[in-house]
Amino acid sequence: MSNRIGCAITNLLLLTVIQTVTCKGSTDPKTFFPAIDGNLTRIVWAHAVNNQSKLNETLKNGDIMMLEADVSLGNVTGTNSIGVPIMAHPPANTSDLSLQDFLKMVVESNTTKGIKLDFKSVEAFEASIPILEKKKNDLSFPVFINADILPGPVNATTTAVDAKSFLSKAKAFPNYTLSVGWTTRYGGETNITKGGYTQEQIESMMNVLKEENVTQPITYPVRAGLVANDIDAIELLMKQSHSQNNATLTIWSSDGDLVNAERLSALIKRIGTDKVYVDVPDDLKKRLDLSGASSVGIASTTIAVSLLIGTLLSTITTTV
Description:
By secondary structure, the chain is of the alpha/beta class. Helix content is 42%, strand content 17%. The protein is globular, with a radius of gyration of 21 Å. The termini are close together.
């Protein structure tokens, strides 16, 4: 039996080597950014890259790894382009940068950065699909497709992007990470400083992903001030997402949001830095204490151990 176990372990190690070699050239952020050593909290983000000046500036910045930009329908200044996908956050409906030119400039200038496209309406996403299809083979870096597809805390009034329509059309891009979250109402503009994600909101997300048979990598963008108030709810989200491919959190925050940095640090440590992107203002990030944080959280450990045991048992059975 010991010889069989030895063979099983050898085969497992060989499988690991093969998988590592196969991952080279992957657009998964963990492999695309080897310097982070699997720690997603080390990824540096740029926000609202919605005009040519900021895009040029960001592309030249060697510290930036991911570019976040908003996609709306509108007009490109200085051209006859009307009602096309542009880089702008509502209520703005004009920009000197179209989605088409944004992608062109990133492809031509970038070999070390990824992008996150935040679609503000399902119409903007639908109009962008032909552009994304045309550039699909050129986007050899991490691409996140983001939308707030469900209403969320605290009694959010912003209209969510239609979940089923967005998810069904996003299947055309299986190599992209789907960043799907909830609308929120929180922070200085609303004077709301309490609240969190509810179990009902978590269940609604799980249900719609299951109904649409989503198999792409998933990240859940969650607002820092809200997510720090209920660690149990977020743990439930991650545990129920074990069947999703590479499910992660993207913790974000607006300037002026009240955030309990101690509780947020505890959440990140609990989930694991291999499962959490931290896209927050610098002053908040400096207040986070991630010393001693594991690069592998509880959910990751459970899944990894299960896969290891399953593979060993399968190999041992085959060799008996």
